[in-house]
Amino acid sequence: MPRITLEPRFQVEYLSILDSDGNLDTALEPKLAGEDLRALYRAMVLGRRLDERMVRLQRQGRIGTFAPIKGQEASQMGSAFTLRRIDWMVPSFRETAAMIWRGWPIEKLLLFFAGHLEGGQPALDQHDLPITIPVATQLPHAVGLAYAAQYRGDDVVVMAYFGDGATSEGDFHEALNFAGVWHVPVVFVCQNNQWAISVPLKKQTHSRTIAQKALAYGLPGIQVDGNDVLAVYAAAREAVDRARAGDGPTLIECVTYRLGVHTTADDPTKYRTAEEVAMWEQKDPLTRFRAYLEKRNLFEANVEQRIDAEIAEAVRRFESAPPADPLTMFDHVYAELPADLKAQREEMAAREPAAPASAGEPPMTPGPTPMRGQRLTRR
Amino acid sequence: MPKLNMVKALNLALFQAMERDADVLVLGEDVGVDGGVFRVTDDLQRKFGSQRVIDSPLAEAAIIGTAVGMALYGLKPVCEIQFSGFAFQCFHQIENHCARYRARSQGRFHIPMVIRMPYGGSVRALEHHSESEEQFYAHIPGLKMVIPSGPRNARALLAAAIRDPDPVIFFEAKALYHAAKEEVPEESETVPLGRAQVAREGSALTLIAYGAMVRVALEAADVLRDEDGVDAEVIDLLTISPLDRDALVTSVKKTGRAVVVHEAPRSFGAGAEIAASIMDGAFLSLEAPVRRVAAHDVPFVGFAREKANIPDVPRVVAAARATLAF
C-alpha cells in the first residue's frame, strides 16, 4: 500500500503590517479609529514608563522582585485591546501593560510587588485572574473559564498569556488539547520574547515556530511580528472574533524580545550579547508606532509627561498604603476559619503588637461572579 | 430505606447534587459513557448530558486545571482522578491553585470544587493503584481532606463536600466500595466536614482510624473485648483536615491511651499530627505513649506482599495490648 498524504493543508502564516523601518502594508492596516490608536499608544507608553519606574523602585528596595516588560508592549496591548470588559484576561507574570489596561490600578500592582497580597485582589467587577507564577499552569484555567462561559451560554472570550518557555510545559499542551477538543472561546497569546531566563528559544524547542504547535491540536496558529502593534491587533481581532462566533480557540505567537532582565534578580549579560540586544532595540515597538501616529497626525505632544505624572501620583498612593496587618493572613484561607486556625490566629494576636487601624476597604465578601448578559443554562 | 453499597451511595450523592444545582459538573477520565472505572458516576451522563458529565482527555493536570477555571467562573466541578496514585500529575494544580486561589485573590475568588479519588489497597492491581496519600493533601493549607468509612457517611460527606465553598479532596477506599451495604436514606443528607465520629464507645483506650481502617479498628475492638475484656473506643475521623482535635482530646482524656491506625506509611503521616494533637490537648491524661499502626516506610510492595504491609486486625490488637500494658 502506498503512503498517502492525510493532512496537506497545514500552514503557518507570519503577519507583519508595520515593520521596523516604518513600511506599512496599507491593505492589511486595521481600521482603527484615531482615538483607539491614541489610546493604544498611551497604554504602551504607560507600560514602558511604569516598567522603568518599577526597576528604580526595586533598586531602591521599595518593591521586591518583578518581571519587567520592556520591549513587549505591542504584544500585550495589541492583543488585550481586543477584549471587552466582560471578557476574561488570564495573565502570567509579565503583563503589566495589559493588566493596567484591563483596569488594575497602578498602586495595586505596586502593592503586589511590594509583597502585599491585597495587590493581587481583582475588583469584583473585573474579569481578570491575578498573576500566576508557576509557568503555564494558568493555561488550563483559561480553558476552564471558557468552558464555563460556554456552559452558561455567556457571550465571553478568554485570553491567556504566557511566554516561549511555557510551551515546553505539559500544562501548555494539555490546555491546547482540551481547548481543541472542547472547542471553547479562548485565545492563547504567546509572547515569544526569545529567552526563558537564560535559555534561548532554540534550546527550548526544535519547532521552527511556536505557532505550529497549535496545528497538532487542531487549532489555527499564527505567528505575528510581536513588536508591530497593528499586526498583533489584527491577529488578535481575528482570533477573538472567531472565538466569539463559536469557531473555537486560536494560538497567536507574538515574536518579540525582552529588552530588559528576566526579573530584577537576573543579569542577562551572562547569557546574551550586547549586539543582540542592540539589534532588537532597533525594532522597538514604541518607536515605529510613534512614527506611524506622527505620519497620521495622531501623535499627542506631552503624552510622556502626563503619564509620568499619573505614575508619580500612583506611587504616592502606593506609599501611603497602611502597613501590612499580620493577622489578616488568616482571613482568606477558608470560607470559615477552622478551630485550629482560630487558635493560631489568637496566638499571633497575643504576641504581635496591635495593628494600626486600617484605612483600607472592608474585606470583600466573595460571591457569584456578576456577568452582564448572563443566562443560566438548565440542563 | 434502601440498602446501598458505597459505590451506589456515592452515585446517589452525585445524582442528587446535580439535580439540585445546575452548576455542579462531573469531569474526569471515563466518567461519562463508562460511568467511571468503579462505576461511581454510572448513568450520570445519560441523565445530565455530556456537557455536564464530561469524558475528558487523559490528562490529570488539565482535569484539575480546567476545573479550577470552571470554579473561578462560579461552577462547582466534581473531578474524578481515576486512582489517587495518578494525582501527582495534577498535584501542582491542587497545591498551587486549588488550595491558594482564595488567599491569592484575597477572597475575590474561591474554588468550590471536589476532587474524588479512589485510594488504598485491596484491588490486586499494579503499582499506583493501591497507595494512600492523604498526608500530602492534609498538609496543604486551603484544602479539606475527607475520607468516609461506609456507604451512609460517604454519601452524606460527598453531598457536604460538593456544597462546601472550599476545595475538598475526597478519598474513597477501594476496599470499601463493595464491602458492605448500609441503609442510606433516599432524601438528601449531609454531615458537616471537620467532625470526627465516635464509631464505638469505650473507656480503656482510643483507637483512631479513618477510611478502610475504621473497619479494622472496629474488629480489633471486638477482639479486645472478647479476648481481653477490654472496652476500646473507636474514633472515625471522617475528615483528616481540618482535624477534629477536640474529638481526639475528649476521648483520650477519658481513656488515657491511644493507637492511631492508617494505611499510609508511618513517618510524617496523619498519625504523627494526631499524636501531637493528643500531646497538646491531653498530655496529663496520657498513661502511655501514643502508638501508630501504619504501613511501613517503603515504596509500593506489590499486592503479593500487601497484607504484610497494610495494618490488619492482629497488628492493631498487638499495638493496643502494648499500649494497655505500658
Can you give a write-up of this model?
The complex is a heterodimer of chains A (379) and B (326). With 379 residues, chain A is of the alpha/beta class. Chain A folds into two domains: 23-319, 3-Layer(aba) Sandwich (Rossmann fold); 325-354, no CATH class. Chain A contains twelve helices and eight strands. Chain A has helices at 34-59, 73-80, 96-102, 106-113, 139-152, 170-182, 201-204, 229-244, 274-281, 285-295, 303-319, 339-351; strands at 13-15, 88-90, 158-163, 186-192, 195-196, 199-200, 221-225, 250-255. In chain A, strands 1-7-8-4-3-2 form a six-stranded parallel β-sheet, sandwiched between helices. Chain A has a two-stranded antiparallel sheet with strand order 5-6. In chain A, helix 1 (34-59) packs antiparallel against helix 10 (285-295) and helix 2 runs parallel beside helix 3. The longest helix of chain A has 26 residues, at 34-59. Chain A is globular. Chain A starts with 12 loop residues before the first strand and ends in a 28-residue tail after the last helix. With 326 residues, chain B is α/β, with parallel strands linked by helices. Chain B folds into two domains: 3-183, Thiamin diphosphate (ThDP)-binding fold, Pyr/PP domains (Rossmann fold, 3-Layer(aba) Sandwich); 197-325, Rossmann fold. In chain B, helix 1 packs parallel to helix 7, helix 3 runs parallel beside helix 4 (91-98) and helix 9 crosses helix 13. The radius of gyration of chain B is 19 Å and the shape is globular. The mean pLDDT of chain B is 97. The interface between A and B is large, with 51 and 48 residues.
